[in-house]
Structure formats: C-alpha cells, structure tokens
C-alpha cells in the first residue's frame, strides 16, 4: 500500500498529535519510506505461525489481594500541571463514556 | 592516581580496604564531570551534593565495620530513563523536563542497597528512540574519542561518561541495541541481559516487550558485578524471571575450552560490514580457537527481516506506552487558552503532545498508531509478531549447535553527528545486528576489540541463549584478558 | 394501510465491580467514598515506569461468576490494551480482554415476565475482566470551567458481562437484570450497589420490523447512563417509539448508519445523542506486553465449581419440589437473598410446616424487617423460635391472631420465651365448655345474626367471632366459628 496524506491526518488525530498543514506532506513522505521498508515482511511466509507477543515463556503471574500503602496525596498530585488540594484539573470534559 | 583507569571492582576494593575513601573517589569523578561534561554532554543532570553525602555515609559505614558489597562506595551514572525519587527523570524529553517520580525504580533501589553512589543521570535519545543521542533536549552526546562523532544511542550518555573517565560504571537500557551500540562506539563493555533478568519496574517504557536494563563498564568483571547487583526477580514486574541470580563474578574465570562458538554467516558476510570490524571478529575467532573452543558456522535466515520486524513492534508498543503523556496528570501541558477549538480538552492533548515530543518520537508514535489501526493490524503488527517468532526459532536452533554466537555489534564505527539525522531509515539500518537479541529476548554483550586506523573503537558482540549471561561473561573475560585490553578512556584535555 | 409489526431486540452489557480488597493491577484499596486521590499509587496513576501485576482474587471471582452463568472458562486468557484518550484514564489505555475473555458462551435463565411458570433464557456472549476508569467532575465554581479528576476508582476490577441480543421487551431486560443482580449477590462477588456504580448497564437496542414481506433491522443504538433498573426499563420503552418514528422518517436500516451512542436523561425521560467522534471506535487493541497470559487449570475450575453456593434458580426449584411452595412464594423468599432462605430452612428443619413458615416470612417477618430497616440476621426472632410458635398454632395451643401478638412481643422482648409471652399478653388456654358458654350467650344476644345464617348468609358469623374475642380474648376464632355454626344448625332442626 501507499501511505497517503489522509492516512497521516487520520493517524495524527488518533494519536492526538497536531500537524501543521505545511508538515503534512513531508511527514507523509517520511512515514511512507518507513512503511515501505517494513513492507518487506510481506515476503515472509507466515501461515500458521503463532504470533509472538512476549519474549518469555512465563504465565499466570499473580498477586495476592493484599492492600499496600497508597501514595500520599500531595505526592500523587506533585507533578500535575494543574491541580487543587484534592484533584487533578483539566479543561472541561464533555459527557462521553467508554 | 588515575582513578578512571581502575575497574569499578578495584575501586570498591580500595574503598573497602580504606586506602581510598568513597568521598575521594566520588569527588574525583565529579571533578572530571565538571571538567569534561560541557564538551561531551554525557550527563543531563549531576547531583554532586547528594553523591558526596552518600559517599560520606558509605565511608562511615565502612569505618564502623559494617559488611558491604564489593561495589559499596563506587560511583555510578544512571540513564535518565530510570525513575529516581531524588532527581528528575526526563527521558531526554521536553515532555518530562520537570518530572520527578515519587518512587525509585527497582534497579535503583538495588544499587542503593549495594552502596553504589549515583553521580547523576546520563543523556539519551528522547524516550530511548534513536541511535545517536541527537534527539535529546540536552543536545547530542559527543564521542570522547572523536568529538564530532556520535557516542551512539540511545544510552550514549552512559557509554560516553565511561569513555571520558567521568564514571567507573554506568547503567543503560537496551530496546534494540541501545546499550551495545553506544558501548561499541565508545570502546567500552555493555551487556543487555536476558529479557526479564532485571526488573523493568521504574524503567520508563519505550517498547515493553523489548526493553531491558543493563550495565556498561570498562571491564567485563565490572559488568558481572553490576549485573549481580541489579538482576533478580521482582514481584512488581510480571515479566520478571523467577530464577536465582548466579554469582557472575565467581563464574567469570571458567575455562571456555569446550565451548562451541557460532559465527553468524549473515552477519560476517554482510556487504555493509566495515572490513576492520570483520577483521576484529576474525581475530576473536582465532583467539578462541586457540583456547580450545570450536567454531561453528551458524545461519539465522530470518535475521534480514529483524529491522522491519523491530520497526513495527517497537513503534506499536511505543504508541501505546507514550499515550500517557497527554498533559493531564504530569508532564508538559501546552498553554491552549488562546485557542478556541471545538474542545479545550482535545486542544490540550494535541498541543501538549506536539510540543512535548520531538520529531523522532512523534514519527514512531504515528508509525505505531498506524500499524495498530483498524484494517492494518493484521498486515503489520500481527505479521511482525509472526516473523518475530521465526527469528526467535532461528536463535533457538542456533543454540542447539553453539553455546555462544560471535559477531559484530554495528556495521560501522561511530558515524558523524548530523550524518543520519535527516534519514531515519538509514539510522534504523544501523541496528541490524543488535535488534535480534531484543526480539528473541536473549542476552547479548558488546566488548571493545581495539581501535581502527582512525582511532575509533571497534567492537564485537556475543549473544547467548536465555539466562546464559555467565557464558557470555566468561567468553568476554577471556577475550579481554588475552587480546584487546587497553585503557578505554579517551585522551581528553 | 397495513400496520407494521415489529419487535425490539435488546442486548445488555453489564459492568460489575468485583468485591476485592485491592485494585485489579495494584495494591491500592477499592473502598468507596474515600477523599479524592488518596487511593492511588504509581501503577494506577499510570506514572512512567510503573507496571501492573494481576490480582489473583479478581480472577477467582470472575471464574466463580462465569461458572454460575453457565460459561466456559478459558484455559488460557490474556490481557489487551484498549487505547483511547480520556482524563480519567491516566495511561491512555484501559487494560481489558479483547479476543480471549476469561469466560465465554453461557446463559442465564429467569422467570418469563409473561408467564410465571415458564423460564426465559438469555445467552451470554462473554464475561471479561477489565480495569475501571476514574471519575471526572465538572466544576463551574468561581468562574472556572474545569473538570476535576479523582483517580481513586481507577483500576478497580470490573467484570463486563455481555449478553446476546436475546431480549425482546423492557420487561425481559428488567427480568434478566434482576436475576443477574440476585445471582451476583448470592455469589458474593459484588455488592451490586448501583448508586455507588458497582453495577452499570449499557443496552444495545434496535427494532426488527416486518414490512412488505421482509424483516428490516433498524440501526443499533447503544444507550448509556442508566442508573437504575427502572431507568433501563424507561429508556428501552422510550427507544421503541423513538426508533420506530426514526425509521418511518428516514427508512434507514442497520448498516446504513454507524452505531449511535445515546445517553439516558432520567429527568426529562429521553435519550440524547452523545457527541460522536469518528475515530472513537478505533481502540487499537493489542496484547499488553507488560502482562503475561493467565492459564487456568481444569482442577481449579472444578474446585471453583464445587465451591459454588446454591444459586437462586436451584433454590426456587428446591422450595417448590421439596417444600411444595408455589412458584410465586418460592420467588419471594429467594429474592430476599440467601440469609432469608437459610432462615426458612432452619425453621422448617425445626419441624414447622413449610407453607406456614413461608406465609409467616412473607407477611410478618418481611414487614418487621422493612419497618426496622434491618437484615434478617438482626431479627430478634430467630428461625427456631418462629418454628416453635408455628408449631404451637399447629397443635392448637394458640390461635394465629394471638400468635402474631406473641411474634411482635418477641420483637420487643427478644429474650422472652413462649410461656413468658403468653403470660405477659394474658394468653391462657380455655376449655371447650367455657367457649361453648360464650357462644350460647352470643347467639341469644344476636338473634338477627342467627336468622341471617339460617337464611344461608354465613357472613354474620364473622361478627360473632369479633364479639367472642371481646368476651374472652383467648377464644380461638376457628373454634368459635365451628361451635356457633353447630349451635345454629341445631336450632334450625329443633325449631
Ligand atoms: Mg468494557
Ligand atoms: Zn494503585
């Protein structure tokens, strides 16, 4: 496939990245080159090969349901760009649920 | 005494034997940092007061007869990607320029417990995405052997700090070669342990299934001692291996006469491999034969796809790992008051991320977002995961025939700063020999192999099966003893 | 003009907060209602470098629930990231399960709202574990139009139970939800408190319309924001008319429009479209590299299965077949929860007749609980004591109306026994001769009643019973009725 400017704009939106109009073209060209490079994977026959998500053969790592101390609230909020005594503050959130 | 020419373990012995105090050692290296860091930019932060305070504490403990580990009082430099309570953790990014983690990484806790003294945080490519340290907000790290060249990346600061004699030991992280490549470019040793050998808790994630913390040092024995300190199971990391940690420093001197050393055909015959690096590999081969080891010809047929595989998987994971930097709870928040977009929240997200991240990080986020998006997942992400298994299987077969694989770390010696910045694909191709170990999760080690005619360090790589760090260290130790050892600190004035 | 026949098609997604001590992937407490941002750590704050580790108990509760819902339990399950940006989701992704849910393919039976003797079966597609998000609160105070974010709830374990679209009316949806909630309560896997958000319901709903000889499916709408079962019912009723009208207007069918999300407004009683983001559905799910797969051994499933408590449907059946209760009565008792069932069981085991205990429970016990706002465990009259009272009625020692007085006396005086209650209430056994005398007097004093009864109108006897009680409070109404009737009959023959 050939990566288009429309693809790039869609991806930028998904990734919450702002791209200025002037940057759309060069960004597309650069990403298209990388996409082209990774497309050599098309040459590898992979039918029936189990995808590998982990480098480890480890499973079922579990933790007992025991409480551990939480952070002090001031420490929890310490890096917040904006906050009050209790909460993080962000620009208004519209009604939207997942 | 030139302390930068001593190994970390030697320094530890002198501190323990009280011929040197930790304060003297720490002050010595702090002085070198003060002298050379402005021209090298190996450190992004130096914490002199904290370090001296810690050194005094260690000295007091030693004076009181307290039993301490072999590295107690020895200075160390930590890549600016491991969370530390007492220093900022910036990841070389504007996004985290002022971020102070409210907790210490597990490996940092372990070093603290071993009595190591942190000198500061080392410079790196932004979020470890790069091979030249040029994407850091602190500016590029310069190679101490040749200032107009790169120190490599992403752990360029950790390697350069050693090569410049600013620390006897440092910590890096390796996602696709980020410990080994800068070690190679700077003429020092670097070890990427088996995935899961060192806890990732507190390591700011780039690509979670590939990231691994490891040591860099002048000497192989220092790698062993440092690995012994930071390795081990951690209940806070689900991907941590629950296996005892061998006493690497004791095992390092074992005979390797029965070992089968595999040489990877695809690597040694690669057209892009610099002849002097090829010769270095050959010299190592001859030497190991002389010690009684058997050389085996090995094929890794899917290794030619490792770059493509890596540059799908790593960006996919990164695109998700870096979603948390959105200006809401920590990190940079762009001032978007003057904008009157449809949603102030969306404005905050987009502009904070666009201002907080540099070009390479944004490029990889875009790439990963694309490869995971609906309609492309199977063709890119799933496909890459399948090829990853083929690469893994190649290694598995190789280790039936060989105990350790020998080959180059990089196709070339350190390249000039700026040379590859405009051409990401060119930059990526430099990872050809290193990404395989990350994809397969196996340990790999880089050790110096002399310098080329231009005076730039040459390096060779050893790779082993999972948890075979001790084998890699033993072979490296033999190579170092007999063949290549020389001062690894560049002459700086 | 033909009237189009249509039926509603409803599938429900229920998010259940599991009753664990700690969050799904970190050791923070899950207690509700603590001060904002006091139950957070690097992991649930999504701080750089933090890593999740799975809570074992949450997986056990999920398996238990899956088994009770007749689900298959996955031999291997894994964790996926659902990527989206929202301020109550600090990592920028939610850890959930995409293609290998821990439980899948089950069903839930419940009483058919149209036929109390029949069962309705709703099939379950899957039940998967995931972490909850935090809370955002809009703050208009002092001219600031900010949102405030509290991450205490972030990371709380949820089990999302997804049904097939097997329900066809708001009544059925309510029946399913009621049974599901009861089941979860019996299992003890969740407190199911809807006010505190422990149980949240989304509905996927559309219409199948028979028109011009074919079945037309209208576009599927996802309804959110329903904070009670009543709200679910109302929203579904509302959607029938709205979707039908919409179809009449646009003629749009499923597939011709994207799935729409609408929020229920409980005050105005309407659903309103939620702001649509065109990219919102591209969650870019992929396996979470920070978490390893979970393998569930057969033996673990077996022992979980053996440890399951008696479930509501089994208990209803048991009450009907073993104790002869009517379906309605069995349901009333089971709906009150397992402790009431145990109360019933204890009373019956003490020798009291099941049907009498059932009616005592349904009338006096439940009323007492309601009046006092207490749980059955706190009832001052334990099951064995109620059984002894019922047995006293059975043996004719005391009549039902006086027994009720004893019950309420016991409520006030928990330590007193039957003897004490009787003497305090002045209840004594009376001999038959005494009552015969009372009846004779009454018939003499009330000739008009005698005449009524002789004319075939037995209603008058009731008033005689009341009068007899006045003369002697210990008079057994049954005996009074019996004696009066006999005496009147004998008067007829003698006259
Ligand atoms: Mg969900
Ligand atoms: Zn937490």
Mean pLDDT of chain A: 93
Strand content of chain B: 5-15%
**Structural shape of chain B:** globular
CATH architecture call of one domain in chain B? Alpha-Beta Complex
Structure write-up:
With 98 residues, chain A is mainly α. Chain A has a domain at 5-43. Chain A is built from three helices and two strands; from the N terminus they run ααβαβ. In chain A, helix 1 crosses helix 2. The longest helix of chain A has 18 residues, at 21-38. The model of chain A has no long low-confidence stretch (mean pLDDT 93). Chain B has helices spanning 8-16, 22-40, 48-63, 106-113, 156-163, 180-186, 220-230, 248-251, 265-268, 275-290, 306-321, 344-356, 359-372, 378-401, 424-429, 435-440, 469-484, and strands at 43-46, 75-79, 117-122, 142-143, 146-150, 169-174, 189-192, 212-217, 260-264, 294-298, 404-408, 444-451, 457-463. In chain B, helix 7 (220-230) runs antiparallel to helix 17 (469-484). With 493 residues, chain B is of the alpha/beta class. Chain B has a domain at 3-255 and 442-485: Amidase signature (AS) enzymes (Alpha-Beta Complex), CATH 3.90.1300. In chain B, strands 1-3-2-6-8-7-12-13-11-9-10 form an eleven-stranded mixed beta sheet, sandwiched between helices. Chain B has a two-stranded antiparallel sheet with strand order 4-5. In chain B, strand 12 and strand 13 form a beta hairpin. Chain B has 17 helices and 13 strands. The longest helix of chain B has 24 residues, at 378-401. Helices cover 40% and strands 14% of the residues of chain B. Chain B is globular. With 495 residues, chain C is of the alpha+beta class. Chain C has three domains: 3-302, no CATH class; 310-425, no CATH class; 432-494, Arc Repressor Mutant, subunit A, CATH 1.10.10. Chain C is built from 15 helices and 18 strands. Chain C has helices at 56-68, 170-187, 229-250, 298-306, 312-323, 327-335, 338-349, 354-372, 383-394, 400-412, 418-425, 432-445, 447-454, 460-471, 477-494, and strands at 5-17, 54-55, 72-73, 76-77, 80-83, 93-96, 103-112, 115-131, 135-139, 146-150, 157-163, 199-211, 214-217, 221-226, 260-265, 270-273, 286-287, 294-295. In chain C, the strands form four sheets. In chain C, strands 1, 3, 7, 8, 11, 12, 13, 14, 15 and 16 form a ten-stranded mixed beta sheet that branches. In chain C, strands 6-5-17 form a three-stranded antiparallel beta sheet, with no helix packed on it. In chain C, helix 3 (229-250) links the parallel strand 14 (221-226) and strand 15 (260-265). In chain C, helix 7 (338-349) packs across helix 9, helix 9 packs antiparallel against helix 10 and helix 12 crosses helix 15 (477-494). Chain C is elongated. Chain C starts with a strand and ends with a helix. The chains are: A mainly alpha (98), B alpha/beta (493), C alpha+beta (495). Strand 1 (62-63) of chain A pairs parallel with strand 2 of chain C. Zinc ion (ZN) is lined by residues 23, 26, 28, 40-41, 43-44, 155 of chain C.
